[in-house]
Amino acid sequence: MLKLDVPEFCLAQEYRIAMPAMLHIRLTRRASFVRGCARAMALLFGVAAWAMVRAAPTEVSIACRCVEGGVNGSEARWLKQVVIPGYVAVAKAQGRDVAVKLREFAGSAEQMSQQLALDFATGQGADLAEFDGFQIPGFVDAGLLKPLDEVAGPEADAWDGWTHIPDSAQALVRFRDKRYGVPEQTDVRMIFYRRDLFRAAGLDADQWRPRSWNDILEAARKLKQKEPASFPLQINAGVAMGEATTMQGWLMLLAGTGEELRDAQGRWIVQSPGMLAALDFYKVVYIGEKLGEARTQRLVSGRNRSFTDFQHGKSAILVESNWFYYAAIDPQGDFPIADRDALVGWTKMPARTPGSAVRGQDFVSVSGGNSFVLNPHSRQPREAWSLLAFMNSAPTLRRYQEFNEHLCVRDDVLPPHSQFLRESGRELLPLTTIRPIDADYEKVSAEIQRMTESVIAGKLSPRAAMAEYAAAMKQIVGADRVVALDLPQGSGS
Amino acid sequence: MSSRGAKVSSRTGVAFMTPAALLIGLFVVFPFFWIIAVSFSNRSLLGANALHPQFVGLKNYLDLFDPATFWGQGGFGPSLWLTIQFVVFSALCGQVLLGLVLAWISRELSPRAKSLLHGIVMLAWILPDVVVGFAWFAYLDRDAGTLNQLLRGLNFPAADFLIEHPFLTICMFNAWRGAAFSMMLFDAALQSIPPSYLETADVVGASSWQKLRDIVLPLIRGHIVTDLILITMWTFNVFTPFLLTAGGPSFESDILPIYTYRIAFKSFEFGKGAAIGVIVMLINLAFSLAYLRLAQRGLRKKGKAA
């Protein structure tokens, strides 16, 4: 029937002319034509589906906050040029036909985690996703992430790579004694300064080594004296900067006072002398002496503005992550400084006064880290794990260093050339602190940003801002999980 | 019509309406009650409450109105107060009044000038949000903005509109953006007034203001109430100012839609976000009732006078 009807109907130009007489025949023919078509379609779909199942390679996808030619461009190039073709070849050699797809995400880190939360909650998303470790507890408690060995099976625990990743780095992806991802790189935070502006202001341009907060303020004052209209010092604060406020600003200052966000019993500290000192420091910098530009901190695109200000010599001292040096102001980066190595110096962030920092240290740093997690809804979890393990093997990561040198957490993958990375890693990793691994951390961090915003905007005094923080924290974590320490009499403002 | 015919047609009518009713039920009625239900729970996307949301009674509402945090920086109180000001200035004084004035002026213009005016005003209304947001941002920026380049060209000091006057900026923006709707509505309303009324007034020498007050406003009262209800609701729910200021700096343009976005989609606290949604709905209901009552009282007064 199929063979007869279709060509007849299609070709029979003349039978349309003979309409009235042919009406009845036409209708029955149309019906059989429709039936014929339906059968042909069904057959076609069947064949196509069968062919696809047979021929289609297993598809695995990777989501990264990286875009070729944009943010973290070198990571995108490494994934596309090394990881994907390398893995496809390895799988082929083992007799598996695999296709790897890269989903590049161009937004901010906050937007990426919003996207992942929504993806994982609805059973969507890539099989592997780049992830900032501090969000693991919140995702785990919500059932959005599962332990590696639960998703990928026991081979995830038996992976030989774990022996090359120190415990301090594994802590970034560990929650309640389970691993949730593979950490790739870590970072450290420090002070960057511009040697040209330091020299012009008569400061030590080659070996500036501040020993206290006061030394930083003194240097900034001299720079401001030399250039009264300038804002030499930027240390992040406020809501627009997001997590950069908490890590590059607040935690760096707080660690310098010897305090942490929680006390030894795990209660959140909502009032303390250290917090007051840190808020007073902000007030001096942004309100009292206008050593830093509060406007930059409050702008929607403030972080990029703080980079361009430093790039163009409008600010001279910036507290940032080492990422700023090797990616942002890299001569090939988004905010290039051509003679970066000669022009930009770095130094350790000092304690408030020598020895006053956590563990009695003179200097502090804060570390976070990037890792990749497995989507618990992955349809080919074993293939995804196998790709993740390949990606984090020493040979593949050594190739990454060729695209962009960074602090890899593996002890057998060192930055091959960069003096800066080797030195800063060696000096700061032993001193560093990490954020609390706690499901409430993200909300606490948002409250910290709100508290610092009130101070640098001149809306509240440090004491009043801290009181608002305490009230909000009681609502968030509960009144029984906060603690207020005694404040020194009459100090602060 | 025979009873049989009526029956068939009503059954057909039901059949025709079913798909639409299902869609409306699924996407409008169900979410409406769902939001109210969620507002009494601690449902969230992240953290333990995501897996096991619990009924928490009025906790979300009590937390919002907790005196310890209500007036805090970025709290619910300032945002609510800011939104009320935003509605009064940008919607009532801005859009409604501006729309009425534009419609009244354009009545006396030549047809060509009138269509030009309407075209320009409509343009502000029909452009997509993102385009408009970007255009205003580019226009007002301190360092590279068009307006500041014009000001500098005329030897005026540059102004930092988005950082120093964020609330004023979003008010101006919203008035500019939405005046077209009121203008169109009032224009149609004015055309429904018999010209003889106004001509008679002209004969006895009434001024433009007298004609507006004593003839036009009483006759278009119904249109005004409709306009007020719609504009108030839209302004209470408008999110576009986020494209200009993101609610900042320091929460100075943190109107309720932006506040709700922060709670519901940045902290992923769906329970609390839903509670704010319910409160906003109640406020809108109160406004609408007040407008309707006002209109009715006006009508009764007119009835007594006559």
Please outline the major beta sheet of chain B: none
In total, the number of strands of chain A is: 16
Unreliable stretches of chain A: 1-23
Write down the domain tally of chain B: 1
- Overall pLDDT level of chain A: 88
Number of strands of chain B: 0
The CATH superfamily of the largest domain in chain A bears the name Periplasmic binding protein-like II
N- to C-terminal separation of chain A?
93 Å
Shape category of chain A: globular
Structural class of chain B: mainly alpha
CATH homologous superfamily identity of chain B: MetI-like
Provide the gyration radius of chain A in Å. 29 Å
Please, could you describe this protein's structure?
The complex is a heterodimer of chains A (493) and B (306). Chain A is α/β, with parallel strands linked by helices. Chain A has two domains: 59-180 and 369-434, D-Maltodextrin-Binding Protein, domain 2; 189-366 and 437-484, D-Maltodextrin-Binding Protein, domain 2 (3-Layer(aba) Sandwich), CATH 3.40.190.10. Chain A has 22 helices and 16 strands. Chain B has 306 residues and is mostly helical. Chain B has a single domain (35-305), classed as MetI-like fold, CATH 1.10.3720. Chain B has 15 helices and no strands. Chain A binds chain B through residues 110, 114, 117-118, 121, 135, 138-139, 141-144, 238-240, 295, 298-300, 439-440, 442-443, 446, 450, 453-454, 457, 459-460, 465, 468, 471-472, 474-475, and chain B through 44-51, 63, 66, 68-69, 72-74, 160, 163, 245-246, 248-251, 265-268.
Key words describing this protein structure:
heterodimer; A: 493 residues; alpha/beta; D-Maltodextrin-Binding Protein, domain 2; 2 domains; four-stranded mixed β-sheet; 22 helices; 49% helix; globular; disordered N terminus; B: 306 residues; mainly alpha; MetI-like fold; 15 helices
